[in-house]
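Entry:
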Amino acid sequence: MSRLSSKVESELQPLLRQLLKSIKERISGAPSVECAEEILLHLEETDENFHNYELVKYLRNYIDTALGSVIDEETEKCTSAEGRSLGSGQDTLVQQVTRKTRESEEYKEMMKSLKNTMMIVVESLINKFEEDQLKKEELHRRKQHEQHTSYCMDSCSDSGSSFNQSYTFLNQEQLQIIVGRMDPSQPKEVRREALQTLCCAPPSDVLNCECWVTLRRHLATALSDPDPTLNDKSLRFYAKTFSSSTFTTTRETYTSLAKHLESCFTSQQSPVPTLFAGIDITSPDIVQLLKKFRLLNEFQKEVPSFWIRHPEKFMEEIVESTLSLLSVTHEQNLRGETSRRVLEPVHFLALLDTKASWFNKWMVKLINIKEP
């Protein structure tokens, strides 16, 4: 038996939900994911109501049922073998019975079934939570739209734009027009206005549009454009998406930004300074490149918090795009001429995150995930 019955799973869901609601304030007040994990690990020590939670009672009864006979049998064996009562050698007896019980096949099977079942229960709760959030967002969006109370920030209403109206939510037709105006063949002013309007829309609307693939390509082109306004507005859209989007949206944005940064070092049109010359932080191009790496690095530090909810689906694309970026090596560096070595992505990341805190967080979280 690799997991408990579906009936047990349905019984555990409301019990787990009740526990999470009871400790919601303590968890949400934690300054980091690591602190939240510590709170959960020491909940029995710090929460006087711990043994009153229905989930704890349920699990205790389940363990008693699964291991009660094993504990009784091992207790009898140990007391008989050593010829003493439970009184004089109680500490030694408890340690022996505990060790024998944990080594038993019943214990291993119980832990395996319980772990698999709880993973399914947690995944189910997460899916339900995301569905509820989407419904709430949709309801809120409709309400805002019907009451005509949703307005863009002042800077999003540039004069001369045919989209010069106060709105935040865009329908598919409007998004398609914006995508057309962001095409590199359009005049720069038209592209600026389209990108400015795009910055006012909810990221979820933009990434769920039918023409997202084309739009993503235009955004990447704007990031590489020598025009500082286009470059800056495109980067602002990426930043907004990182800070306010769902898992799927964030993944799309991260991989797109990582791919763009990779192209900055592989394209002949994007000259990169040499190691000998160093980085000129007064150069607008270098400043913009550092901004992009800083945005990428800020999100890298937050990636482990997503792994808790999306350990497989999320990790793969994020890790692969990161490794692809860091493995970029300029052909000039392969010739072995130190004076002409070109700076690589890893140099820029090291400059912004000198202790590689993002990498440490990834490794710690990866170890925790792989631990049985």
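The two ends are 18 Å apart (CA to CA).
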